[in-house]
UniProtKB/TrEMBL annotation:
It catalyses: (6S)-5,6,7,8-tetrahydrofolyl-(gamma-L-Glu)(n) + L-glutamate + ATP = (6S)-5,6,7,8-tetrahydrofolyl-(gamma-L-Glu)(n+1) + ADP + phosphate + H(+). It comes from Streptococcus jiangnanensis. Belongs to the folylpolyglutamate synthase family. Its EC number is 6.3.2.17. This is tetrahydrofolate synthase.
Length: 440
Protein backbone atom coordinates (compact mmCIF):
# COMPACT_ATOMS: atom_id res chain seq x y z
CA UNK A 1 0.00 0.00 0.00
CA UNK A 2 2.19 2.83 -1.23
CA UNK A 3 -0.70 5.25 -0.83
CA UNK A 4 -3.79 5.06 1.33
CA UNK A 5 -6.34 3.16 -0.74
CA UNK A 6 -9.59 3.59 1.16
CA UNK A 7 -8.90 6.90 2.84
CA UNK A 8 -8.33 9.37 0.05
CA UNK A 9 -9.83 12.04 2.30
CA UNK A 10 -6.42 12.47 4.00
CA UNK A 11 -4.93 13.66 0.69
CA UNK A 12 -6.92 16.87 1.19
CA UNK A 13 -4.80 17.56 4.27
CA UNK A 14 -1.48 17.18 2.45
CA UNK A 15 0.65 20.33 2.18
CA UNK A 16 3.91 21.20 0.42
CA UNK A 17 4.91 23.31 3.41
CA UNK A 18 4.36 22.45 7.09
CA UNK A 19 1.89 24.47 9.15
CA UNK A 20 4.06 24.95 12.23
CA UNK A 21 2.37 25.20 15.60
CA UNK A 22 1.14 22.80 18.29
CA UNK A 23 -2.33 24.18 18.98
CA UNK A 24 -4.01 21.89 16.42
CA UNK A 25 -2.22 18.82 17.78
CA UNK A 26 -3.17 19.68 21.37
CA UNK A 27 -6.83 20.02 20.43
CA UNK A 28 -6.88 16.96 18.18
CA UNK A 29 -5.29 14.71 20.81
CA UNK A 30 -7.54 16.09 23.55
CA UNK A 31 -10.53 14.91 21.50
CA UNK A 32 -8.94 11.44 21.50
CA UNK A 33 -8.31 11.38 25.27
CA UNK A 34 -4.67 12.57 25.18
CA UNK A 35 -3.04 9.24 24.25
CA UNK A 36 0.39 10.90 23.98
CA UNK A 37 0.44 11.52 27.72
CA UNK A 38 -0.07 7.82 28.49
CA UNK A 39 3.21 6.76 26.86
CA UNK A 40 6.88 6.51 27.76
CA UNK A 41 8.38 8.43 24.84
CA UNK A 42 11.93 8.76 23.54
CA UNK A 43 11.87 11.86 21.33
CA UNK A 44 14.55 12.08 18.61
CA UNK A 45 15.34 15.19 16.56
CA UNK A 46 18.24 16.40 14.43
CA UNK A 47 19.10 17.15 10.82
CA UNK A 48 20.47 13.76 9.76
CA UNK A 49 20.96 10.35 11.35
CA UNK A 50 17.59 10.21 13.10
CA UNK A 51 16.29 7.18 11.21
CA UNK A 52 19.46 5.12 11.56
CA UNK A 53 19.88 6.02 15.24
CA UNK A 54 16.27 5.00 15.88
CA UNK A 55 16.79 1.74 13.97
CA UNK A 56 19.77 0.83 16.18
CA UNK A 57 17.95 1.88 19.37
CA UNK A 58 14.78 -0.02 18.47
CA UNK A 59 16.74 -3.21 17.84
CA UNK A 60 18.50 -2.96 21.22
CA UNK A 61 15.32 -2.17 23.17
CA UNK A 62 13.58 -5.13 21.54
CA UNK A 63 16.46 -7.38 22.62
CA UNK A 64 15.64 -6.31 26.20
CA UNK A 65 12.20 -7.83 25.69
CA UNK A 66 10.32 -4.53 25.30
CA UNK A 67 7.44 -3.74 22.96
CA UNK A 68 8.77 -0.77 21.03
CA UNK A 69 6.61 1.56 18.98
CA UNK A 70 8.36 3.62 16.28
CA UNK A 71 7.00 6.62 14.41
CA UNK A 72 9.33 7.60 11.58
CA UNK A 73 8.84 9.47 8.30
CA UNK A 74 8.84 9.55 5.37
CA UNK A 75 8.11 5.94 4.52
CA UNK A 76 10.22 4.14 1.93
CA UNK A 77 8.04 1.16 1.04
CA UNK A 78 4.49 1.28 2.40
CA UNK A 79 2.49 4.10 3.98
CA UNK A 80 1.89 1.87 7.00
CA UNK A 81 5.65 1.64 7.69
CA UNK A 82 5.60 5.05 9.38
CA UNK A 83 3.96 3.43 12.41
CA UNK A 84 5.30 0.12 13.69
CA UNK A 85 5.60 -2.02 16.81
CA UNK A 86 8.62 -4.32 17.09
CA UNK A 87 9.22 -3.92 13.38
CA UNK A 88 5.65 -4.84 12.37
CA UNK A 89 3.89 -2.04 10.52
CA UNK A 90 0.40 -1.07 11.65
CA UNK A 91 -2.05 -3.44 9.91
CA UNK A 92 -3.83 -1.80 6.98
CA UNK A 93 -7.25 -2.60 8.44
CA UNK A 94 -6.27 -0.99 11.75
CA UNK A 95 -4.91 2.10 10.00
CA UNK A 96 -8.08 2.44 7.95
CA UNK A 97 -10.26 2.09 11.05
CA UNK A 98 -8.31 4.77 12.89
CA UNK A 99 -8.41 7.02 9.85
CA UNK A 100 -12.16 6.62 9.70
CA UNK A 101 -12.29 7.76 13.34
CA UNK A 102 -10.20 10.82 12.53
CA UNK A 103 -12.24 11.57 9.41
CA UNK A 104 -15.44 11.59 11.47
CA UNK A 105 -13.80 13.63 14.19
CA UNK A 106 -12.39 16.30 11.87
CA UNK A 107 -15.49 16.58 9.70
CA UNK A 108 -17.76 16.77 12.74
CA UNK A 109 -15.65 19.30 14.66
CA UNK A 110 -16.45 22.97 14.17
CA UNK A 111 -13.38 24.12 16.12
CA UNK A 112 -11.61 27.04 14.43
CA UNK A 113 -8.33 25.74 15.89
CA UNK A 114 -8.50 22.57 13.79
CA UNK A 115 -8.76 24.51 10.54
CA UNK A 116 -5.53 23.95 8.61
CA UNK A 117 -4.82 20.53 10.15
CA UNK A 118 -2.23 18.72 8.01
CA UNK A 119 -1.70 15.12 6.95
CA UNK A 120 1.45 14.93 9.09
CA UNK A 121 -0.45 16.12 12.14
CA UNK A 122 -3.13 13.49 11.60
CA UNK A 123 -0.66 10.65 11.11
CA UNK A 124 1.34 11.81 14.18
CA UNK A 125 -1.80 11.88 16.34
CA UNK A 126 -2.79 8.50 14.95
CA UNK A 127 0.62 7.06 15.92
CA UNK A 128 0.26 8.26 19.51
CA UNK A 129 -3.28 6.83 19.52
CA UNK A 130 -2.18 3.42 18.23
CA UNK A 131 0.80 3.09 20.57
CA UNK A 132 -1.31 3.99 23.61
CA UNK A 133 -4.05 1.54 22.64
CA UNK A 134 -1.46 -1.20 22.14
CA UNK A 135 0.21 -0.36 25.46
CA UNK A 136 3.76 -0.33 24.08
CA UNK A 137 6.53 -0.24 26.69
CA UNK A 138 8.21 2.68 24.93
CA UNK A 139 7.44 4.79 21.87
CA UNK A 140 10.28 6.28 19.82
CA UNK A 141 9.00 9.39 18.05
CA UNK A 142 11.02 10.95 15.23
CA UNK A 143 10.69 14.71 14.73
CA UNK A 144 9.36 15.55 11.27
CA UNK A 145 10.93 18.98 10.77
CA UNK A 146 12.63 21.35 13.19
CA UNK A 147 11.56 20.49 16.69
CA UNK A 148 10.07 23.38 18.65
CA UNK A 149 6.86 23.56 16.61
CA UNK A 150 6.90 20.07 15.11
CA UNK A 151 3.74 17.98 15.48
CA UNK A 152 5.51 15.34 17.58
CA UNK A 153 6.52 17.91 20.21
CA UNK A 154 3.38 17.58 22.33
CA UNK A 155 4.74 14.57 24.22
CA UNK A 156 6.20 14.48 27.72
CA UNK A 157 9.23 12.27 27.00
CA UNK A 158 11.39 10.32 29.41
CA UNK A 159 14.41 10.97 27.18
CA UNK A 160 15.30 13.22 24.23
CA UNK A 161 18.05 13.06 21.63
CA UNK A 162 19.46 15.42 18.98
CA UNK A 163 21.61 13.62 16.41
CA UNK A 164 23.19 16.28 14.19
CA UNK A 165 22.68 19.91 13.15
CA UNK A 166 23.11 21.01 9.55
CA UNK A 167 21.67 23.51 7.10
CA UNK A 168 18.36 22.07 5.91
CA UNK A 169 14.95 23.59 5.16
CA UNK A 170 16.63 26.98 5.56
CA UNK A 171 13.58 28.87 4.28
CA UNK A 172 11.55 27.39 7.12
CA UNK A 173 14.00 26.89 9.98
CA UNK A 174 16.56 29.68 9.50
CA UNK A 175 19.65 30.18 7.39
CA UNK A 176 22.31 29.79 10.10
CA UNK A 177 23.47 26.76 12.09
CA UNK A 178 22.60 28.61 15.29
CA UNK A 179 19.03 29.38 14.15
CA UNK A 180 18.44 25.77 13.15
CA UNK A 181 19.94 24.54 16.44
CA UNK A 182 17.46 26.72 18.32
CA UNK A 183 14.56 25.07 16.50
CA UNK A 184 15.92 21.56 17.04
CA UNK A 185 16.53 22.29 20.74
CA UNK A 186 12.82 23.02 21.11
CA UNK A 187 12.27 19.36 22.02
CA UNK A 188 14.35 19.70 25.22
CA UNK A 189 12.09 19.39 28.27
CA UNK A 190 12.48 20.54 31.87
CA UNK A 191 14.68 18.11 33.78
CA UNK A 192 14.58 15.41 31.06
CA UNK A 193 17.96 13.92 30.00
CA UNK A 194 19.27 14.92 26.57
CA UNK A 195 21.69 12.82 24.49
CA UNK A 196 23.50 14.66 21.69
CA UNK A 197 25.43 13.33 18.71
CA UNK A 198 28.38 14.81 16.87
CA UNK A 199 27.35 18.46 16.64
CA UNK A 200 29.45 21.46 15.58
CA UNK A 201 30.49 23.72 18.46
CA UNK A 202 28.42 26.74 17.39
CA UNK A 203 25.24 24.63 17.30
CA UNK A 204 26.12 22.74 20.47
CA UNK A 205 26.56 26.03 22.32
CA UNK A 206 22.93 26.92 21.52
CA UNK A 207 21.69 23.47 22.59
CA UNK A 208 23.73 23.57 25.81
CA UNK A 209 22.35 27.01 26.70
CA UNK A 210 18.76 25.84 26.27
CA UNK A 211 19.42 22.56 28.11
CA UNK A 212 20.99 24.44 31.02
CA UNK A 213 18.00 26.74 31.22
CA UNK A 214 15.73 23.69 31.49
CA UNK A 215 18.05 21.83 33.88
CA UNK A 216 18.19 18.93 31.45
CA UNK A 217 21.08 16.54 32.16
CA UNK A 218 23.30 16.19 29.06
CA UNK A 219 25.06 13.13 27.67
CA UNK A 220 27.40 14.45 24.97
CA UNK A 221 29.27 12.84 22.10
CA UNK A 222 33.03 13.04 22.59
CA UNK A 223 32.68 14.00 26.25
CA UNK A 224 30.31 11.64 28.05
CA UNK A 225 30.62 8.88 25.46
CA UNK A 226 33.19 8.25 22.72
CA UNK A 227 33.25 6.20 19.53
CA UNK A 228 36.34 5.39 17.51
CA UNK A 229 36.37 3.83 14.05
CA UNK A 230 38.38 0.62 13.72
CA UNK A 231 37.72 -0.73 10.23
CA UNK A 232 35.13 -1.30 7.51
CA UNK A 233 33.98 -4.81 6.60
CA UNK A 234 31.65 -6.01 3.86
CA UNK A 235 28.57 -5.92 6.07
CA UNK A 236 29.20 -2.86 8.23
CA UNK A 237 31.60 -0.78 10.32
CA UNK A 238 33.59 -1.89 13.37
CA UNK A 239 34.05 0.64 16.20
CA UNK A 240 34.98 0.97 19.86
CA UNK A 241 32.55 2.56 22.33
CA UNK A 242 33.47 4.04 25.70
CA UNK A 243 31.41 5.74 28.41
CA UNK A 244 31.37 5.85 32.20
CA UNK A 245 29.15 2.74 32.28
CA UNK A 246 30.30 0.73 29.26
CA UNK A 247 33.15 -0.07 26.94
CA UNK A 248 33.32 -2.55 24.09
CA UNK A 249 33.92 -3.23 20.41
CA UNK A 250 30.88 -3.50 18.13
CA UNK A 251 29.90 -3.82 14.48
CA UNK A 252 27.06 -1.99 12.75
CA UNK A 253 24.68 -3.70 10.35
CA UNK A 254 24.60 -0.51 8.28
CA UNK A 255 27.28 0.72 5.89
CA UNK A 256 28.86 4.17 6.18
CA UNK A 257 31.41 5.80 8.46
CA UNK A 258 28.71 8.06 9.92
CA UNK A 259 26.86 4.95 11.17
CA UNK A 260 29.37 4.46 13.99
CA UNK A 261 28.28 7.86 15.34
CA UNK A 262 24.61 6.91 14.99
CA UNK A 263 25.20 3.54 16.66
CA UNK A 264 27.21 5.21 19.44
CA UNK A 265 24.43 7.71 20.11
CA UNK A 266 21.86 4.90 20.12
CA UNK A 267 23.98 3.12 22.74
CA UNK A 268 24.13 6.25 24.88
CA UNK A 269 20.35 6.59 24.56
CA UNK A 270 19.85 2.95 25.54
CA UNK A 271 22.04 3.15 28.65
CA UNK A 272 20.44 6.44 29.73
CA UNK A 273 16.96 4.98 29.21
CA UNK A 274 17.85 1.96 31.36
CA UNK A 275 19.22 4.22 34.09
CA UNK A 276 16.17 6.50 33.99
CA UNK A 277 13.69 3.60 34.17
CA UNK A 278 15.58 1.54 36.74
CA UNK A 279 16.52 -1.25 34.35
CA UNK A 280 19.71 -3.27 34.42
CA UNK A 281 22.10 -2.28 31.63
CA UNK A 282 22.11 -4.56 28.61
CA UNK A 283 25.10 -6.87 28.15
CA UNK A 284 27.68 -6.16 25.47
CA UNK A 285 26.78 -9.47 23.82
CA UNK A 286 23.15 -8.45 23.48
CA UNK A 287 24.15 -5.04 22.12
CA UNK A 288 26.60 -6.57 19.65
CA UNK A 289 23.89 -8.84 18.28
CA UNK A 290 21.35 -6.00 18.01
CA UNK A 291 23.69 -3.55 16.27
CA UNK A 292 24.86 -6.19 13.79
CA UNK A 293 21.28 -7.17 12.95
CA UNK A 294 20.04 -3.60 12.40
CA UNK A 295 18.63 -2.83 8.95
CA UNK A 296 17.33 0.48 7.61
CA UNK A 297 16.19 0.69 3.96
CA UNK A 298 17.54 3.49 1.80
CA UNK A 299 20.69 4.16 3.81
CA UNK A 300 23.63 2.99 1.69
CA UNK A 301 21.44 0.01 0.88
CA UNK A 302 22.85 -2.45 -1.65
CA UNK A 303 19.83 -3.29 -3.84
CA UNK A 304 21.83 -5.00 -6.57
CA UNK A 305 25.26 -6.58 -6.33
CA UNK A 306 25.79 -7.39 -10.02
CA UNK A 307 25.80 -4.69 -11.26
CA UNK A 308 26.46 -2.82 -8.01
CA UNK A 309 23.62 -0.38 -7.19
CA UNK A 310 23.14 1.54 -3.92
CA UNK A 311 20.25 3.61 -2.61
CA UNK A 312 21.06 6.40 -0.14
CA UNK A 313 18.71 9.08 1.12
CA UNK A 314 21.27 11.90 1.24
CA UNK A 315 18.77 14.77 1.06
CA UNK A 316 20.75 17.79 2.28
CA UNK A 317 24.39 19.02 2.16
CA UNK A 318 25.27 17.47 5.53
CA UNK A 319 24.07 14.05 4.38
CA UNK A 320 25.77 14.42 0.98
CA UNK A 321 29.09 15.00 2.76
CA UNK A 322 28.59 11.79 4.75
CA UNK A 323 27.81 9.90 1.54
CA UNK A 324 30.91 11.25 -0.17
CA UNK A 325 33.12 10.26 2.78
CA UNK A 326 31.84 6.70 2.53
CA UNK A 327 32.30 6.60 -1.26
CA UNK A 328 35.89 7.69 -0.76
CA UNK A 329 36.44 5.10 1.98
CA UNK A 330 34.79 2.13 0.26
CA UNK A 331 34.76 2.90 -3.47
CA UNK A 332 37.78 5.11 -4.11
CA UNK A 333 38.89 2.97 -7.07
CA UNK A 334 35.44 2.61 -8.61
CA UNK A 335 33.86 4.63 -11.40
CA UNK A 336 30.77 6.24 -9.86
CA UNK A 337 27.49 6.85 -11.71
CA UNK A 338 25.24 9.04 -9.55
CA UNK A 339 21.52 9.71 -10.10
CA UNK A 340 20.15 12.63 -8.08
CA UNK A 341 17.02 14.68 -7.48
CA UNK A 342 15.49 16.58 -4.57
CA UNK A 343 12.39 18.37 -3.34
CA UNK A 344 11.72 22.10 -3.61
CA UNK A 345 12.71 23.06 -0.07
CA UNK A 346 16.22 21.61 -0.34
CA UNK A 347 19.52 23.32 -1.20
CA UNK A 348 19.85 22.05 -4.80
CA UNK A 349 22.86 24.22 -5.71
CA UNK A 350 24.84 23.36 -2.58
CA UNK A 351 24.25 19.63 -3.00
CA UNK A 352 25.24 19.68 -6.67
CA UNK A 353 28.39 21.64 -5.82
CA UNK A 354 29.36 18.77 -3.50
CA UNK A 355 28.38 15.96 -5.86
CA UNK A 356 30.40 17.51 -8.68
CA UNK A 357 33.57 17.12 -6.59
CA UNK A 358 33.37 13.30 -6.66
CA UNK A 359 36.39 11.99 -8.60
CA UNK A 360 35.89 9.61 -11.52
CA UNK A 361 32.12 10.13 -11.56
CA UNK A 362 29.21 10.88 -13.86
CA UNK A 363 26.32 12.85 -12.38
CA UNK A 364 22.80 12.58 -13.83
CA UNK A 365 19.80 14.65 -12.74
CA UNK A 366 16.26 13.37 -12.86
CA UNK A 367 12.69 14.27 -11.88
CA UNK A 368 10.12 12.25 -9.94
CA UNK A 369 6.37 12.71 -9.90
CA UNK A 370 5.43 14.27 -6.57
CA UNK A 371 3.94 17.64 -5.64
CA UNK A 372 6.97 18.28 -3.40
CA UNK A 373 9.53 17.56 -6.14
CA UNK A 374 11.72 20.27 -7.67
CA UNK A 375 10.14 21.28 -10.98
CA UNK A 376 11.27 19.27 -13.98
CA UNK A 377 12.03 22.48 -15.92
CA UNK A 378 14.35 23.63 -13.11
CA UNK A 379 16.20 20.31 -13.10
CA UNK A 380 16.56 20.24 -16.89
CA UNK A 381 17.77 23.84 -16.90
CA UNK A 382 20.24 23.12 -14.10
CA UNK A 383 21.58 20.06 -15.92
CA UNK A 384 22.09 22.11 -19.08
CA UNK A 385 23.80 25.02 -17.31
CA UNK A 386 26.16 22.68 -15.42
CA UNK A 387 26.78 20.39 -18.38
CA UNK A 388 25.30 17.40 -16.56
CA UNK A 389 23.26 14.50 -17.89
CA UNK A 390 19.48 14.48 -17.57
CA UNK A 391 17.48 11.25 -17.83
CA UNK A 392 14.25 9.73 -16.55
CA UNK A 393 15.05 7.63 -13.51
CA UNK A 394 13.27 4.59 -14.96
CA UNK A 395 15.44 4.72 -18.09
CA UNK A 396 18.56 5.17 -15.96
CA UNK A 397 17.75 2.08 -13.88
CA UNK A 398 16.88 -0.11 -16.85
CA UNK A 399 20.06 0.94 -18.63
CA UNK A 400 22.33 0.41 -15.64
CA UNK A 401 20.77 -2.86 -14.49
CA UNK A 402 20.95 -4.49 -17.91
CA UNK A 403 24.31 -3.16 -19.10
CA UNK A 404 27.07 -5.11 -17.36
CA UNK A 405 29.81 -4.41 -19.89
CA UNK A 406 31.94 -2.27 -17.61
CA UNK A 407 35.36 -1.09 -18.71
CA UNK A 408 36.07 -0.30 -15.07
CA UNK A 409 34.62 -1.49 -11.77
CA UNK A 410 31.55 0.71 -11.31
CA UNK A 411 29.13 1.59 -8.52
CA UNK A 412 25.77 3.24 -9.22
CA UNK A 413 24.30 5.46 -6.51
CA UNK A 414 20.68 6.65 -6.51
CA UNK A 415 20.40 9.46 -4.00
CA UNK A 416 18.55 12.61 -2.96
CA UNK A 417 14.98 12.82 -1.70
CA UNK A 418 13.64 10.01 0.47
CA UNK A 419 10.29 10.49 -1.29
CA UNK A 420 12.15 9.75 -4.55
CA UNK A 421 13.84 6.68 -3.08
CA UNK A 422 10.43 5.39 -2.03
CA UNK A 423 9.36 5.34 -5.68
CA UNK A 424 12.66 3.84 -6.87
CA UNK A 425 12.59 1.09 -4.25
CA UNK A 426 8.98 0.18 -5.05
CA UNK A 427 9.87 0.06 -8.76
CA UNK A 428 12.82 -2.25 -8.10
CA UNK A 429 10.77 -4.54 -5.87
CA UNK A 430 8.11 -4.83 -8.55
CA UNK A 431 10.70 -5.38 -11.26
CA UNK A 432 12.00 -8.42 -9.36
CA UNK A 433 15.15 -8.29 -11.42
CA UNK A 434 17.59 -11.15 -11.36
CA UNK A 435 20.63 -9.00 -10.70
CA UNK A 436 20.99 -9.56 -6.98
CA UNK A 437 18.12 -7.43 -5.67
CA UNK A 438 16.19 -9.03 -2.85
CA UNK A 439 13.33 -7.68 -0.82
CA UNK A 440 14.09 -7.14 2.89
Amino acid sequence: MNEIQNNQWIAHYRTDQPHFGLERMVELLALRGNPHLKLKVIHIGGTNGKGSTIAFLKEMLEKLGLRVGVFSSPYLIHYTDQISINGESIPEARLEALMADYESLLEGEKSAVLQGTTEFEIITALAYDYFAAEKVDVAIMEVGMGGLLDSTNVCQPVLTGITTIGLDHVALLGDTIEAIAEQKAGIIKQGIPLVTGRIASEALAVIDRIAEGKEAPRIRYGKDYQVSYQKSVVTGEIFDYTSSVRQGRFQTGLLGLHQIENAGMALALLDTYCQETGRELASNDLIAQALKETRWPGRLEVVSSDPLLLLDGAHNPHAIKALLATLQERFADYHKEILFTCIKTKALKDMLDLLETVPDSQLTLTYFDDSRATDESVLKGTAKSRNLNYQSWQDFLEQKLTNKNEEKQTVRIVTGSLYFLSQVRAYLMERKNENGYTKD
